[in-house]
Amino acid sequence: MAKISACIVAYCDYDEVCAAVRSILHYTPAPDFALYVVDNGSPDGCGKELAATDFGDARVTVLPLPENIGFGKGHNAVLDRLQSDVHFILNPDILLTEDILEPMADWLLSVPGAAMATPQLHYPDGRLQHLPRRKPTPWLLLARQLAPKCSGPFRKADDHYTMQDEDLTVPRRIEFCTGSFMAVRTDVLKKIGGFDPAYFMYVEDADLTQKVLQEGTVWLAPQFSAVHAWHRAPMRDAGKFKMQLISMGRYFRKWGCGKGSV
């Protein structure tokens, strides 16, 4: 069996983080599993609460940071500690409903050339989330933002971007693995240096996927599933939307605006 580790980067919302941690511990029996919870300087005291919480499991390590260093750098904070074969990057709004981490890691390692995978994610009410994506382009990201309010070409482009014109009920290669739930070969993650620290938040998962694709293939593994609350904020918060635009600009300067191959 593969040796596994996982990391959650928290920012406020103590109860949600605890629910994620407890579900992961409950459905992950591996005795040598290591779960890291990094608090990004939460102003609501979440980090202190987490550090004082007894999860009743020595496999958990809580690392409160003095300030918010961003999503990617928060995950990078545990990179030197990892001694696993496969590492999971998980959002604090993820809930496991079955034992999938170790089986998914074993599956990833069994696929020749595979370096990263994501499972099928569901909303809490059971609806499917369309998170496997093609490589971003400016047009596809614009369509992604406008599709919920528009139809016609925006909706058609978003369906293409989220690969709804493909059979996603079977394992298949993808070009953009969501940062909500990533399984990455630990040796690959260390080789590429984890997330690019230049991103504070948004699009860093697309960037990481492109880095991983230089080392191996990236997969949707729909035979595994989990619940993801998915708090989409950019269109509701002007500051976060501006941050997303800055990250998108950084991504396209680095990787170009061309189409992918899937």
Describe the structure.
The protein has 262 residues and is of the alpha/beta class. It has one domain: Spore Coat Polysaccharide Biosynthesis Protein SpsA, Chain A (Alpha-Beta Complex). The protein is 34% helix and 21% strand. It is built from 9 helices and 9 strands. It has helices at residues 14-26, 46-52, 71-76, 101-110, 138-146, 153-161, 186-191, 204-213, 238-255, and strands at residues 4-10, 34-40, 60-65, 86-90, 94-95, 114-122, 172-173, 181-185, 217-228. Strands 1, 2, 3, 4, 5, 6, 7, 8 and 9 form a 9-stranded mixed β-sheet that branches. Helix 5 packs across helix 6 (153-161). It is globular and about 50 Å long. The mean pLDDT is 91.
Please supply descriptive tags for the structure shown above:
262 residues, Spore Coat Polysaccharide Biosynthesis Protein SpsA, Chain A, nine-stranded mixed beta sheet, 9 strands
Task: Compose a concise summary of this entry.
The protein has 262 residues and is an alpha/beta fold.
Task: Write the SSE topology.
Blueprint: E1 4-10, H1 14-26, E2 34-40, H2 46-52, E3 60-65, H3 71-76, E4 86-90, E5 94-95, H4 101-110, E6 114-122, H5 138-146, H6 153-161, E7 172-173, E8 181-185, H7 186-191, H8 204-213, E9 217-228, H9 238-255
Parallel strand pairs: 1-2, 1-4, 2-3, 6-9
Antiparallel strand pairs: 4-8, 5-9, 6-8, 7-9
Into how many domains do the coordinates divide? 1
Average pLDDT score: 91
Helix content: 25-40%
CATH topology (level 3) name:
Spore Coat Polysaccharide Biosynthesis Protein SpsA, Chain A
* Head-to-tail CA distance between termini: 31 Å
CATH top level class name: Alpha Beta
Class of secondary structure makeup: alpha/beta
Principal-axes shape call: globular
Secondary-structure element sequence? EHEHEHEEHEHHEEHHEH
- CATH architecture identity: Alpha-Beta Complex
The largest sheet is: 9 strands, mixed
Q: Could you tell me the radius of gyration in angstroms?
A: 18 Å
> Strand percentage, roughly?
15-25%
Low-pLDDT runs:
none
Number of helices: 9
Task: Say how many strands there are.
Answer: 9
Instruction: Name the CATH superfamily assignment.
Output: Spore Coat Polysaccharide Biosynthesis Protein SpsA, Chain A
